Amino acid sequence: MSDSASGESKGKTLSSVGLSSIIAAACGYVVLIVASRSLSPGENANFLAFWGVLLGLFGVLTGLSAEATRAVKSRSMAIHGGKGAQAMPVSLGIGAVAALLLAATSPIWMPSLLPDAPPLLWLGIALAILLYSGHIALAGASAGLERWGTYSSLAATEAVLRLLVMAIAAFVGGSLVGLEFGALSGTLVWLYFAFFTKNGRAALRARADVRSTRLRHPMLTSHGNCCCNGSIGHRTTRGHQNCRRPN
Hints:
With 247 residues, this protein is mainly α. Helices cover 83% and strands 0% of the residues.
């Protein structure tokens, strides 16, 4: 009976995670449709460049989630867990450093990637990086605690909110900047889960198997291993520049 219940639970877990992945992927596809239908060809090319940069920067941070999962899971399985560091503050600290570096250096490289973007958008992207480091830490800790419902809901709700805000922006005015800021809105979702849901609060407080000084190193290592994802933005920007050449 217990084996049957365990199998049913695993099946529900796989279903929820799979469904959230499908929802997130579908929303990402619809985002591109909304942008293409709402913007002129030139503006849409700019949005695609922005979208590539944003996904590339988010991709660089995804390693933090994997390490948070490992560290939290390891502590939960230990007989004597000790007083490890909370995963969230460490991840947010790394995200804060990344956001500050981005904000400080964006006047140098951002104009070449997003030539028509206002400086306020640069700051918006930097803030989104900080918020996203919290999002992936909460997702990673939820996975480590095996709170798969929260993990799945985070992924799906982030994508749905982003699409909803972008759709509203498109309906109201359809400006490029409005859609770009709408695309950043999904990084706010985790705050609701962290403070207003039971499982989210548990993930927010989840501790790793080591202290903060020892947790930062593997998190930074995982973070570095994902830096190759930043090439997404570069490839998209090259496509963006090619789109603009005929003009």
